[in-house]
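Hey,
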Amino acid sequence: MLDSILQKSPVYLLVFVRCFALILTLPMFSMRSASRVAKVALAGYMAFFIFGNINQNVYAPYINEDGVFSMIYVLLLIGEALIGVIMGFFISIIFAAFSAAGQFLAFQMGLSAASSYDALSQVENPLMGQFFNLVAMLVFMQTHWFQKLFLQGLVTSFSSLSALSIASSNEKIALFMMKGLTSLFSDALVIALPVMGTLFLITVCTGLLTKAAPQMNLLSEGFPIMILVAFAIIAIAMPGIIDFFVRSFNKGFSDLELFFKSVSGGV
């Protein structure tokens, strides 16, 4: 196997670039605290196992016999990196829906000011956004979607999508990304709507009671009440929220598979 990699190192480099671009854009692996050496090593191991399962004859006409790189080969490298970025960015969109739901909840609860740097999303994120992000990551790992992404999704991408086919599918790529961004906000609203609706009713009731009896000063007590009610609803609805997380991952990977099939015809 090592002799085959050495003889066809340009093809191995194409596989490695796609794997490395995917790792750099995945939510957990893209953290700055993750070792760069570990990322390169993981991409190398992934490329090593995938290299023997792809059709290497597709790239043969674009690689010189003496192994010298050409401009066409450089464009192939860029195309492979773009495919890996598209896959990783789409997975990041799925996680961004959960983080956005937490931001909606934090704003309604009055905790939007309680924000800090989130290592997973690498942005300034409220505490509720970080909480939902961590729960989504735990669900993602517990349901073995990482293994499915690396062992099944990445291998399938090499059998259905290549840098040659992606060059003529820019419109489909744009529509695919726009669909993912649309589902981001819809999923975030579905997750946050029960708590947001309940807190809105509490705010309205508190305002009416304060208007009827100003001496009660319920607005000053409404802040801790809304926080307690929000946490209670989240605790009660957590099994349903986790089930929605799993269904979101299933839908996301199904959409990614359909995207591969729609632009297939390269490899």
